[in-house]
Specification:
Distance between the termini: 29 Å
Number of helices: 9
CATH superfamily: Vaccinia Virus protein VP39
Strand content: 15-25%
Number of domains: 1
CATH topology: Rossmann fold
């Protein structure tokens, strides 16, 4: 499976082991506290069961989608089929990546991309048929139009260059390919809008306005845009133009 991944790369691997590593000793500088915590040895141990669901519930609010509903949104809007190649950007411990691997099967390829060694080690240990890549999430080193789908949940707002990441997703997708995103969505009324901004800055997370991501995708040639808002989050999906 790693050999299939290597064939898609545009960068020379530094190491091919349990996951393919193109970063080596180079670490992406963290954009704030949230990213620094992701690289510890402790957070990956509790990420899927406690960390992500708890923080997600705080961000989404009591009436927002559950983790199961997040997975359902991703699967429905990516419309994966057997044999597809899908990239899960900032995959963490691989919860979504494993879901995708089950759908695309051995004929396809589910790639989890993250820069954290500790997250990737945990993802590999969980098994599930996916392959993993340690690489730059903003500029994934994969061939143009090589992917059928891209997923990026709970990460875009932590990237130093989120709009460059959207450029990359558009470049990597085949015509008709789909993207699904979960990111921040600042509330529209004051004083909560100011509170959202201050809290985001304190944790190193960018607070996007509602509608900003949909608008940015349309500007990059995406159509059939779906938007869903909950608390300070937005779920967005779209299809790349043919």
């Amino acid at each position: 499976m790693n050999a299939r991944l290597v064939d898609l790369l545009t960068a020379e691997p530094v190491e091919i082991g349990e996951y393919v590593d193109v970063l080596g000793d180079m670490d992406e500088p963290p954009t704030g506290l949230a990213q620094r915590l992701m690289r510890t040895s402790f957070v990956p141990q509790i990420y899927e069961r406690y960390w992500r669901p708890t923080l997600g519930r705080v961000a989404k609010g009591l009436t927002g989608p559950s983790m199961a509903e997040e997975h359902q949104f991703a699967l429905e809007n990516l419309a994966l089929r057997k044999g597809d190649v899908v990239l899960d950007v900032a995959s963490g411990t691989g919860g979504f990546t494993r879901d995708f691997a089950r759908v695309v099967g051995s004929e396809g390829l589910a790639i989890g991309l993250d820069s954290s060694r500790t997250m990737l080690a945990r993802a590999v240990a969980a098994g599930g048929g996916a392959v993993y890549l340690r690489a730059d999430a903003v500029r994934p080193p994969l061939r143009d139009e090589s992917l059928d789908a891209v997923c990026c949940f709970a990460a875009l707002h932590m990237f130093a260059e989120p709009m460059v990441a959207l450029d990359s997703f558009a470049r990597l997708l085949k015509p008709g390919g789909r993207v699904a995103l979960l990111t921040s969505g600042r509330r529209t009324w004051e004083p909560m809008r100011t509170v959202d901004t201050v809290l985001g800055q304190a944790s190193g997370q960018r607070m996007f306005d509602r509608g900003k991501i949909a608008e940015s995708l349309r500007a990059r040639g995406f159509t059939a845009v779906v938007e869903r808002y909950a608390g300070v989050t937005q779920l967005v999906a779209a299809r790349k133009g043919e």
